[in-house]
Each structure stands twice: as structure tokens, then as C-alpha cells.
Amino acid sequence: MVTMRFLSLVGNSFGCSASGERLVSAARDGDLQEAKALLDYNPRLARYSTFGVRNSPLHYSAAQGHHEIVSLLLESGVDINLRNYRGQTALMQACQYGHWEVVQILILFKANIHRADYLNGGTALHLAALNGHSRCIRLLLADYIPSIPNFCSILRKKSKNDESVSEFDQGSLHEVISRPADGGITALHMAALNGHADTVHLLLDIGASASSVTVEDGTTIDLIGAGSTPLHYAACGGNAQCCQLLIAKGASLTAENMNGWTPLMVARSWHRDSVEEILSQRPAGRPRLCPSPYLCLPLMSIVEIARENGWRCNDSPSTCLDPCVVCLERKCTVAAEGCFHEFCTQCALYLCSTNSTSTVSQGPPGSIVCPLCRHGIVSFGKLAGTRPVTKEIARNSLSLSFCTCSTELPGNNSLETPFCKPDLQCPRPSPLRSSFRSLSCKKFPSMKLSPGLCMGAPDTSPCLVPRTTDRSMSGQLVRCSRSSSLRRSTSQNDGRRWLCSFNQSMGADSSC
């Protein structure tokens, strides 16, 4: 009986983890056909996570910028806000590496932008600002910057009695932009320290405070000092353009942090000679800045239309009577307000996501240029014939168990147990790859599967089955739990955790 349980454990662990590792490899390498075949075979593989860092296939595809695989995983029903060992979501990793196409898809699927890193409290906005990914920042704020022509003038108004201020929730926008990580560090601090002038310009234009200060919380090592403004951080980074932008927005040259240092003293202590002259001379008057080239007002309107009516239409030019003039493939679904030129939703999204024009001759700041007439577009409107997309049930329901096993061990002496129940009609593998045949639902000889050993057994109650350990000459093997997160065995997780880096969640892909 002990031998049978050992064989059951080995066989089930191999069947559950091998295909999961293949999906991870496909997501990391961008192999779309392999990912489709694996998800068709078993939809719950989308929730698989690796040892140690606990990155799911969604994390890997987002970090590598494979947006097609990200769409495939999301359409299969995977949780868009899955976290790895340090609390990072796929959105956070896509922002960290600047894959704006992945960020666009995740925002359209309503990913949570407020999730924070367990180690430093940083959000997706902090990671995008840290690396200067301005396109990702404006996509993150698509639900907070309204598609109205007087947005910039509303932000500049100080009076709370003005009725126009109530046209959008300015408080929510300010809360998202000014949210501090550990030590009170905001996204503006991170962008200024690393010298990302375009990101600093965008954050200041949408209302980031140039006078926000860091705090001493005992959890971070701040060599600049608590009580530092973004100008202190820009002085430490030594970027002259960032310093000029912050000074133009009202940053104080004489503000002292808790160490008693002004921005000029910080620059001198870090030997930033290039910014000493800027920080030592008080400007005669506040210079007038042009609007940020990454501010995009129409983004909220097109995102709302895309969520309601879909953004990917597979109409061919032969079946589309009035194709989009940009791609000549999809039918027109939206029209630009003002010039009324028509586009497909996907092309309109692309225009809004890639725009980098600071001013438009015939439009307010933040409008994008119409590719047909050069008119400034502030918002998009849905065409009359466009119908909402009927949301289909996910083709791969994650409510299905990983493999459904019998509730009792068979009483006869038969040594053959089907990997899945025959009445489930398990789908046959796609003939995309010959090696994929080894994953078919065929019987394993000399093996009995117990429901307590099945990695994907339904999670009826949290940790009701105690974990028992069997010793072997090769090491420790621990029975798979019923956890819905599909974690690996505890002994294997502990034995390999030391291989994983605690500074970069994606840095240990090859070893974990």
C-alpha cells in the first residue's frame, strides 16, 4: 500500500507540474501556439505558479511583453490580479519593463492599479516612474483623466467654489498620483532621482505636488534624508532638466530636509556639478512650460468604448463595407468629436497610446492629432451602428478541477486508474506539436490516484487534509495540497527558496 501511494504521488506530481512548466516556458518565450494547446488541454494551468518567486504564466508573459499571450490567459479566465512572492501583479511587472501594449490590455480588463509591493509599498505607478515609462503612466491613469477640453485649466484653478472643478473627481486623481511608498516616496520622487524628465513633466502636468516630502519610517535607508522634496532627489540624480521642471512648478530652492540640507547642498555632497548653477540662482520669474507631450485627453473615452464594445474585430476587407482608413482591415466603430472622422476602436486606442505631441494647432493641450485632417481630438464617440459585445463565457472555465479523481480508492485489485474521469470528455490535445501527445488523458499503468494527492482537487475547505511526508533516498516528497493557487509541495518550495533573488522577482527565472 505504501508503494502504491508513492507511485501515485510521483505520477500525479509529474502530470500536474510538467504541463505547468511548459506553459510557463511558452509564456516566457512567446510561443502562442504552445500556450493555446496547453490551455485547451487544461485551463487550470493558467493558475500555475513557479517555485520560490511564485510567478504565474501571466507574470512571465507580461514581463516579457508578449501581449497576445496575455490576452489569451485573460480570456481563459485567469485572475488578472494574481500576486507573486513579493506581491507584484502582472500589471506591475509590465510597467516595470515598459511594455505599454501589455499595460493597455490589462487596463482594458480592469486590472487593479492600487496593489502595492510587499517589500517597499510601491505600486505600478511607482515602477513605471522609476524606469521612466511615460506611456505606461498615462494608460494607468486612463480612468482618472477625463476627456474634456478644459482639463488643464481645471487643474490650475485654486478656487473650490468654481463649478467647473466638479466636472471630474480631482481628489481621486491626486490620491493616485501622490500615493507614497515606504518612506513617503512618491512617483515624482522616483522619476526625479533617476533623471526621467518626460515622466517628471507628465506627473507635474496632471497634478503631482512638487512640495511633497519623504518621511522617516525606519524601514528604508534614505541617504538623502527624510523630509526631502522631489527637488532634493533631482539634485541627487544630477539631471538639469528635471531640476528646471520642478523649479518652474514652484519647488523651493531653500527647503531643508531633516538633515538640514537644501537641494544645492545635496547636489554638492553628491558631486553633481552640472546642476549647482541652476540650484544656486533664484529665477527672476516662473518660466512658462509647454504641456507634456505624453498627456492624452481622449484616452478615457476610447477605453470606455473598448470595454463596452470590444476592441478587436476580425472583419476582413472583403466583408467590411466601410473599413477604417488607418488599417483598412476593420470596420469603423468610433468617430472623433470635432472633425467626425471615423476609425476602428483598435486604431483609435493605438493613436491614444502612442501619441507624443505636445501641442496641437487646432485643439487644447492634451488633444491628439487626427491623422486625416490634423485637427485636435479631445474625445471619441461611438458610432450609431456599433453594438455592445455580448460577453461569452470563458472557453476555459477555471471552476473545473485540475483532474477529477474518485472519492474512494477502488476496492478491487486493479492497478489502472484513469487520469481523468471518462465522463468529463477530456479534450484531445491539439496536433500542433508531436511532443504534446504525451499529455493526453490516457491511463497510467500500475498507479492509483487519491483525491488527497491531486493537485487540482476542488478547494472545499482551507487546508483540511494534513500534509504527510514520505522519505526516499532522493529527498523529501510532500503531498500536494488542495490549495486553489496550485502551489508546489512545501519541501520543494523550502529547498529551492534560497536560489531565488529577493531584489528582482524576475531575475531568478532560470534557477527557480
From TrEMBL:
Catalyzed reaction equations: S-ubiquitinyl-[E2 ubiquitin-conjugating enzyme]-L-cysteine + [acceptor protein]-L-lysine = [E2 ubiquitin-conjugating enzyme]-L-cysteine + N(6)-ubiquitinyl-[acceptor protein]-L-lysine
Alphabetic keyword roster: Acyltransferase, ANK repeat, Metal-binding, Repeat, Transferase, Ubl conjugation pathway, Zinc, Zinc-finger
Annotated EC: 2.3.2.27
Span of domain RING-type: 324-374
InterPro entries listed in its UniProt record: Ankyrin-SOCS_Box, Ankyrin_rpt, Ankyrin_rpt-contain_sf, RING_XB3-like, Znf_RING, Znf_RING_CS
This protein's pathway: Protein modification; protein ubiquitination
Database matches in Gene3D superfamilies: Ankyrin repeat-containing domain
MF terms (GO), sorted A to Z: ubiquitin protein ligase activity; zinc ion binding
ANK repeat windows: 53-85, 86-118, 120-141, 183-215, 226-258
Domain of life: Eukaryota
Cited PANTHER family: ADA2A-CONTAINING COMPLEX COMPONENT 3, ISOFORM D (PTHR24193:SF121), ANKYRIN REPEAT PROTEIN (PTHR24193)
Protein name: RING-type E3 ubiquitin transferase
Species name: Salvia divinorum
Gene (UniProt): XBOS32
